[in-house]
Design goal:
This protein is mainly alpha-helical. It is built from 2 helices and no strands. This is Ribonuclease H-like domain-containing protein.
Length: about 55
Amino acid sequence: MVSYNYSRTPVDTESKLGDDGDPVSDPTFYKSLAGSLHYLTFTRPDISYAVQQ
């Protein structure tokens, strides 16, 4: 890792979350979706790599 290159982050790192929006009607769905995506990134690194590129 002596000759590595930096890369830009494709996400806005300066945005802040606020509590002025409406709450979701079913938070279980969003928790399940986030957990599924987390599981997918660990079990299929080939997909994670392709999405990152």
